[in-house]
Design goal:
heterodimer; A: about 450 residues; alpha/beta; 7-stranded mixed beta sheet; about 25% strand; B: about 350 residues; Rossmann fold; 12 helices
Chain lengths: ~450, ~350
């Protein structure tokens, strides 16, 4: 049967074009790859190549024709043994029906307007039960993180740690102290200063069946590795139709430390939380640091663990259990209260808890929620609290614009609007690059007083 | 075995089409008739598949970007002939040929191009983002050079697990100007990782000739020399030369000697993507490559000359290959689009 040569689309947006020139005439033999015509689009002149072998039986559209619609037959190719009499031109007058891909998509049930998100995730299980008599040991966040990695490395040979100064130097912030001695240089790897490179190597190792823990000396340097975190780690599972999971943890101190200036004080909480395909944790206590990091290492997805340098040296009680695992995606109420909900995470809780204490003295009972995970975010716990207190203050060290507090405000407005007795207040870092001078840095960061003031505003007590 | 020293001391070869690229051996070893047939069939499958993909793109059945591999077939087919079970393959977005060479099902590849549910990524990846864990094909990556550290990481996984598997990490000459390539070279050499860097030099990074983009563009195989990575330039239009170089590079990696770079001198006949009119090079240049260096034609001529095949028997192979491609194209057009519910799947692995 003769083959129709169709007017091709030569860009994702082309709908019609000019058939500028025929480079073959009727009766010419052509083989695959031969240039047979030139077509002008709004952007360029393109060559049309033959795909099949045969003889040009008939030219249907003369050269010079303008506005030739894509997919209209422009010529007929005869295969071996066919002649021009086998061409039924009338059958070709009408444009070929569009490919099924162009057909109108079947109606899709529109997702509910209030939740443009995935089907509701199931409520995550809460913290494991701590058996009576379990010893609680005061542990620094630094050691808790180290213990989490060591325990998981003992449990699973495929877990390894890589990063700058993680091995021989014992960690720039001593979080990996002792790991080299116990696990050796093959699993505790000092990398060169090469964030983009080792983030990609980590992703490849995860694709290859390992469970990498990639330490950024600080997350400030992860900006160089952003492409691999987002494009390679977070998106590949989806782009592979579920084949290529990336079980990897990127961890390190995030946000402001002390007097290190704008480039070394970047807070990535909202950046990473923005991305589907990532999980993001930001622990405050040592028990959560340990339990969340252990869960993160076992998780089959890429997890970002945002730590805080100031919290590294702070001690909290950690239950001495064989397997202390804190589930990802579950917030925790650190202090119960009835007048106002204060939501924060990581170092922001330092301000939130101090403010709650101060507010108690003024007769305001604040409920303090530690998000612990930023993505997925346990909005159910926030909303349940807001339904009780009817007032909400969010606290974060990062910038407010498109920040974590902005997201929480939007969710609470959508889902608990009628329960709010006052507009949500956001306490955040000021909208400036982090200054170096001690007084300016203090002004740029939120304070407990900022939280007290915001809480009083939503309680109409200012 | 060519040491890094001798490779580094090679005289630079001109990338001009008329001059044969310098390679390790003047004349690559002959293929057995079986090898010739295998290479012929595989290359032809890629060629016909890509021509059909181009046609379907022209019909609007394939959307977005579509980068064809026509002209470069000998590279991936020759490399593939040198590796074994469990070795990994990773490349950029000009990836259809690599997938076919990995023996991924042409129907699944074409259906991914058309965005259908039977595609390798269920229609969610497209031309540039396709994978097959089963065939050890790790993508299909859309960001120029991002696959280089990832491929190095695959090699790292081999190293840590103590296997003798090798990662074939492909990238174009355009990618060689990305910093992460050198970050990868450094780590791969530092840790002696089993990775063959297959640098497919098709001479144009989109519309920019390699001579306008790369310093010392005539010796890109030397780009790893400061890291102690041996490199060779290979006639990437001759599948025998590719296989011969690949054999040595893979053996080098398996022996624990670390990474190696093979600069494949190749050529793409089509534009960078379907919407590229390729005005940055002359028609004569393209025609010359097609007529004098075509990788498939070279094998065809040898098969006929040796008497291993006749015109007629080759025609029947051509027919078989066309039938496979036609079946793939048919499937890719009748297979349904993904179920709308797929929008929300595969974002996270359920723990």
């Amino acid at each position: 049967m003769p083959i129709q040569i169709l007017m091709p689309a030569l860009s994702p947006t082309m709908e019609e074009g000019k058939l500028a020139k025929w480079l073959v005439k009727e009766g010419d033999d052509v083989t695959s790859g031969d240039v047979i015509a030139e077509i002008e689009t709004d952007k360029a002149t393109m060559e049309v190549e033959a795909v099949d072998e045969g003889k040009i039986g008939k030219i249907l559209i003369e050269e010079g024709a303008e506005n030739v619609k894509v997919n209209v037959p422009i010529a007929v190719l005869l295969e071996d043994g066919e002649d021009a009499s086998s061409i039924d031109v009338s059958a070709m007058a009408a444009p070929t029906p569009p490919a099924s891909a162009d057909a109108a998509p079947p109606p899709v049930e529109a997702p509910s307007v209030s939740t443009p998100a995935a089907p509701e995730p199931e409520t995550a299980p809460s913290d494991p039960e701590i058996p009576e008599g379990t010893e609680l040991v005061a542990t620094t966040v630094r050691d808790a993180l180290r213990d989490a990695m060591a325990e998981e490395m003992r449990r699973d040979d495929t877990v390894f740690v890589m990063g700058e100064e993680v091995a021989e130097y014992q960690g720039a912030y001593k979080v990996t102290q002792g790991l080299l001695d116990e696990f050796g240089g093959k699993r505790v790897i000092d990398t060169p200063i090469t964030e983009h490179g080792f983030a990609g190597v980590g992703v490849g190792a995860a694709f290859g069946g390992l469970r990498p823990i990639v330490e950024f000396m600080t997350f400030n340097f992860a900006m160089q590795a952003m492409d691999h975190i987002i494009n390679s780690a977070a998106k590949t599972l989806y782009m592979s139709g579920g084949q290529m999971g990336c079980p990897i943890v990127f961890r390190g101190p995030n946000g402001a430390a002390s007097r290190v200036g704008a480039q070394h004080s970047q807070d990535y909480s909202s950046w990473f939380s923005h991305v589907p395909g990532l999980k993001v944790i930001a622990p405050y206590t040592a028990a959560d640091a340990k339990g969340l990091l252990k869960s993160a290492i076992r998780d089959p997805n890429p997890v970002i663990c945002l730590e805080n340098e100031i919290l590294y040296g702070k001690s909290f009680d950690v239950p001495q259990m064989d397997d202390w695992l804190v589930p990802l995606g579950k917030a925790k109420i650190l202090r119960e209260g009835s007048d106002v909900t204060v939501v924060s995470f990581s170092h922001g809780l330092t301000y939130a808890l101090a403010a709650a204490e101060e507010l108690a003295g003024q007769g305001i009972s604040a409920e303090v929620i530690d998000l612990r995970s930023l993505r997925p975010m346990d909005t159910a716990t926030i909303i349940a609290s807001v339904k009780k207190t009817n007032r909400l203050v969010t606290v974060e060290e990062g910038w407010a614009v498109c920040g974590v507090g902005a997201e929480i405000s939007a969710v609470v407005m959508s889902e608990a609007f009628d329960h709010l007795d006052a507009p949500v207040q956001r306490v955040s870092g000021k909208d400036v690059p982090m200054p170096y001078a001690a007084n300016l840095e203090k002004l740029a960061l939120p304070s407990a007083q900022d939280v007290v003031d915001a809480a009083k505003r939503v309680c109409y007590r200012d | 075995m060519v040491s890094s020293k001798t490779a580094a001391n090679k005289k630079p070869a001109k990338p001009a089409a008329a001059k044969k690229p310098k390679r390790a051996l003047d004349q690559p070893p002959e293929f057995s008739p079986e090898q010739e047939m295998h290479a012929y069939r595989q290359m032809l499958l890629i060629r016909r598949f890509e021509e059909k993909a181009g046609q379907l793109y022209g019909m609007g059945v394939i959307g977005g970007f579509c980068h064809l591999y026509i002209g470069q077939e000998a590279v991936v087919v020759g490399m593939q002939m040198a590796i074994g079970e469990g070795d990994q393959i990773i490349t950029s977005y000009r990836d259809h040929g690599h997938m076919l060479a990995c023996e991924m099902d042409p129907k699944g590849v074409m259906a991914e191009l058309t965005g259908r549910r039977g595609g390798y990524s269920k229609g969610k990846g497209g031309s540039m983002h396709m994978f097959s864990r089963e065939k050890n094909f790790y993508g299909g990556h859309g960001i120029v050079a991002a696959q280089v550290p990832i491929g190095t990481g695959l090699a790292f996984s081999n190293y840590l697990k103590g296997t003798d598997r090798v990662s074939l990490t492909y990238f174009g000459e355009g990618a060689t100007n990305q910093g992460q390539v050198y970050e990868s070279f450094n780590m791969a050499s530092l840790w002696s990782l089993p990775v063959v860097y297959v640098l497919e030099n098709n001479r144009y990074a989109m519309g920019t000739s390699v001579t306008r983009a790369a310093a010392k563009s005539e010796e890109l195989f030397n780009r790893g020399s400061v890291y102690g990575i041996p490199g060779e330039q290979v006639d990437g239009m001759d599948v025998r030369a590719v296989k011969e170089a690949a054999d040595r590079a893979v053996a080098h990696c398996r022996a624990g000697k670390g990474p190696m770079i093979l600069e494949m001198m190749t050529y793409r006949y089509r534009g960078h993507s379907m919407s590229d009119p390729a005005k940055y090079r002359s028609k004569e240049e393209v025609q010359k490559m097609r007529q004098e260096h075509d990788p498939i034609e070279q094998v065809r001529q040898r098969l006929i000359k040796s008497g291993a095949m006749t015109e007629d028997s080759l025609k029947s192979i051509d027919k078989e290959v066309r039938a496979i491609v036609a079946e793939a194209a048919e499937f890719a057009q009748v297979d349904p689009e993904p179920d709308p519910a797929e929008l929300w799947t595969d974002i996270l692995v359920e723990a």
